Amino acid sequence: MASRKEALQRRANRVRRSIKAVANGRPRLSVHRSSKNIYVQVIDDVAGTTLASASTLDTDLRSSLKTGADTAAAAAVGKLIAERAVKAGVKEVVFDRGAFIYHGRIKALAEAAREGGLNF
């Protein structure tokens, strides 16, 4: 029987494989959620570089958030990553939720990024 960590890694790889198949050269908006924080990056897989990143640990957000582990914090990070990505010249991305289901904080981040100007 596979451990929980192995099962999560397998699920994340399955999601990334399907995303890369439909990406058509678009950067990937990758999300990681921990119990205390949320992290997001815009990654160009062709060049292997990170174009923009944001998290609840950023000094801009940290002081204004009550906690880094709620949907309000995820929405704030979504707006921030959209702002930074548009500044870097990225408007079209593919959403990589990793091993996490599209619900709660992940959904709040995605909707805020869409409102901020990213298309996916």
Could you describe the 3D structure shown?
This protein is of the alpha+beta class and 120 residues long. The chain has one domain (4-115): Nucleotidyltransferase, domain 5 (2-Layer Sandwich). It has helices at residues 4-22, 59-62, 71-87, 105-115, and strands at 28-33, 38-44, 49-55, 94-96. Strands 3-2-1-4 form a 4-stranded mixed β-sheet. Strand 2 (38-44) and strand 3 (49-55) form a beta hairpin. The mean pLDDT is 95.
CATH class: Alpha Beta
Cα-based radius of gyration, to the nearest Å: 14 Å
**Oligomeric assembly:** single chain
Percent of residues in β-strands? 15-25%
Give the domain tally: 1
Number of strands: 4
What percent of the residues sit in helical stretches (DSSP H or I)?
40-55%
Per CATH, which architecture? 2-Layer Sandwich
> Tell me, what's the shape?
globular
Q: Reading side by side through the largest sheet, how are the strands ordered?
A: 3-2-1-4
Amino- and carboxy-terminal Cα gap = 36 Å
- The helix/strand series, from N terminus to C terminus, equals HEEEHHEH
Q: What is the residue-averaged pLDDT?
A: 95
Largest sheet: 4 strands, mixed
Please give the count of helices: 4
Question: Layout of helices and strands, plus pairs?
Answer:
Layout: H1 4-22, E1 28-33, E2 38-44, E3 49-55, H2 59-62, H3 71-87, E4 94-96, H4 105-115
Parallel strand pairs: 1-4
Antiparallel strand pairs: 1-2, 2-3
